[in-house]
Structures are given as C-alpha cells and as structure tokens.
Amino acid sequence: MKKMNLRKLKIYTENWSEEPFSISRSYEDNFDVVVVELEQNGVKGWGEGSPTEHYNESVQQNKTLIENFRELLENGMSRQELKQVFPKGAARNAVDCAIWDLEAKLAGKRVWELPDIAKHLAVKGNSKVENVTTVYTLSLDTPKKMGEAAAKHAIRPYLKIKLTGDGDLERLAAISKNAPNSRLIVDANEGWTLEHYQRFVPELKSLGVEMVEQPFPANKDSILKTLDRPLPVCADESCHETLDLERLKGLYDFVNIKLDKTGGLTEALNLQNHAENMGFQTMVGCMSSTSLGIAPAFLIAQRAQIVDLDAPLYLYEDRASPLQYKISEVSPPNAELWG
Q1: Rounded to whole angstroms, how far apart are CA atoms 175 and 209?
Q2: HEC states along the chain?
Q3: Longest dimension (CA), the chain
Q4: How far from chain centre, in Å, is Cα 138?
Q5: Is the separation of the CB atoms in 49 and 94 below 8 Å?
Q6: Which residue segments constitute the domains of the chain, with CATH numbers given?
Q7: Which residue among 39, 71, 177, 334 is the one 20 to 30 A from 192 at the CA level?
Q8: 1 has a pLDDT exceeding 50
Q9: Do 122 and 300 meet the contact criterion of CB atoms below 8 Å apart?
Q10: Nearest Cα to Cα of residue 88 among 218, 235, 248, 258
C-alpha cells in the first residue's frame, strides 16, 4: 500500500512588472519569480524565489530542481534536510520560506515566535519584531536624471546609488546637491576597476557617502586586501553563504545577506550569526521581488546595520496583503502575507 503524502506541493511561476531599473550590467522592467506552496492538514505555507541570470538561474531551472525533490518534500523534508541536499539559490529560498511559513501556521504562531527565530531576535534584547527603515535605490542613469530622481526622493532618509564607473563622481555630485539631507551608500555591482576605486573613494566621503558596495568583480576582489578603505566596503556578489566568510576576512567590512543567494531564511540566519561573530557588520538586501519575497528578510533586518528591502516600492502592483511602507519605514508582514 502506497504511503500517503504528508504534504501537497505546488510549484508555479509569475511575472511582475516594475518601474524600469538599471544597474552596471543589466536593465529590467519586469521579472519572474518561482512560488512554492506546501499544504498540510488544510494549512498552506508559501515562499517566493527570484532566479538570477547572473548566477545561472532561470525559472525553468528552479522549477525542475524543486520538482526533482517532490517526493521528499511531500513526505515531510525538514529545513535542515533541505539545506543538506538542495544547492543554495532562489529555488531553495522559495522552499525554505514555504516551510517556515507552514511551520508557523501549523503552530498557530507568528514565525518570530518560533524558537529558532525568537533566539535569533533575542540577541538584540527582545524577541519582538519592529519597524525598520530601508534605503531607497536610485537606478543607474545620467548624472542629470539621477539628480532629478534624488530630488524626487529627497524626503527619504537613506538613498542607495547604483554606479558603474566613468561619470560616477558627476552622478554623486548631482545626487548630493539634490538630496542634501539623505544619507548615501553606493553600489557598483562589480563595475569598477582599480583606477576607478583609487580615483573615486577619496572623493566619496565629501559627497556624503557612508559605504561602498561590491566595487570589484567577485573573482577579482582579493585586491581589496592591498587597498586603503577610508569608507566601509560591503560584499554582495562575493558573499552567498556562511562558507564564504573566511575568504572575505580582511577584504570587506560588511556583508550583504540576500535570501535568494543564501538559499533561504535558515542559512541567512546562520550567515548573520557567523558574520557578526567574525566582526562583520551586516546588511540585508533583496533581488527584484514582491512583498512575499521580502517578508522573510524582514527578520534578518532586525539585526542588520543597513536595510535594503525596497523592491516592492518599484512594483506597479503587489500581493493582495503587501508589506506596508510609510515613506521608507517598513512594518512587519501580516499573517495573510507570510509567517
């Protein structure tokens, strides 16, 4: 007699439209996500992953990967077992976050009341989740257009500036002039050369910049060990999981934790713990996502020094029960959304 499955797995993809957005290596005005639903005893948990071409991911590759583990997932695979057999990335993120959501709903609790999360939050003194303030990212464009965008968003306390190399100082001068009260961080998305770094970084502080994110390609960032760092430098593309941290010592001051890189909340929690213990400060970031993809990262944001969870602000339409933003202040997800 065939064993009855504990859960029912559903996998599907969605395409979402967003405001046009450019970084040093790409442009997009829409994106695909993979959604995983796990139903058990009439209760459904779900999670979202955003496959990234830069990491050789696609929605079809994600769907196939998850489908290959259908039997194990439907028969109760745990988050710990998932981490052992699934590669890091967006597919594992969608499944991991669906399991967290299901666990919370089956327990009749909010996800931050579950022991593993409560213990993580207790490091900051309590197990409650609080509103956080996110940066707002300005898409890469000409200095004139980026200055105009800065003026439009000058009310926001924190702006993140996408850069690419030549012309970056002019971009920053226009932004600093038009948003004089906003704190600034910059993200080159691996787009700088050594010459760019040496020429730009001494000027950045006078323009109000507080941190530089991923100036060099991940496979060429060892040069940071030989360079002065008058401003903190953050690893993004160079940091995916806890195993990366040892190599990053002496190169970076911050690590940017994104659940689509870590392969879910479970590894993100582990990465944040280890990074802090090794002396790194942490930033929490995101790919293009709906509120469902951002909600689990809200828990990492509770201990992060910099929060970059602005993706839903660019959507023309979001989930039915979206995250609530008041200018740049984000409230915890409601139970209808996730967790």
Answers
A1: 11
A2: CCCCCCCEEEEEEEEEEEEEEEECCEEEEEEEEEEEEEEECCEEEEEEECCCHHHCCCHHHHHHHHHHCHHHHHCCCCHHHHHHHCCCCHHHHHHHHHHHHHHHHHHCCCHHHCHHHHHHHHHHCCCCCCCEECCEEECCCCHHHHHHHHHHCCCCCEEEEECCCCCHHHHHHHHHHHCCCCEEEEECCCCCCHHHHHHHHHHHHHHCEEEEECCCCHHHHHHHHHCCCCCCEEECCCCCCHHHHHHHCCCCCEEEECHHHHCCHHHHHHHHHHHHHCCCEEEECCCCCCHHHHCCHHHHHCCCCEECCCHHHHECCCCCCCCCEECCEECCCCCCCCC
A3: 73
A4: 16
A5: yes
A6: 8-109 (3.30.390.10), 118-330 (3.20.20.120)
A7: 177
A8: no
A9: no
A10: 258
Rounded Cα distance, 110 and 333, in Å: 10
Q: How far apart are CA 329 and CA 156, in angstroms?
A: 9
Q: Which residues are known to be catalytic?
A: 162, 258
Strand partners, 160: 137, 185
- β-partners of residue 234 are 213, 254
Q: Cα-atom radius of gyration of the chain, to the nearest Å? A: 20
pLDDT digits (tens, 9 = 90+) for 149-196: 999 999 999 999 998 888 899 999 999 999 999 999 999 889 999 999
pTM above 0.90, yes or no: yes
Least confident of 17-21, 232-236, 307-311, 333-337: 17-21
From its phi and psi, is residue 294 left (phi > 0), alpha (psi between -120 and 50) or beta? alpha
The predicted-structure confidence for 114-162, as pLDDT tens digits, reads as follows 999 999 998 876 668 999 999 999 988 999 999 999 999 999 999 999 9
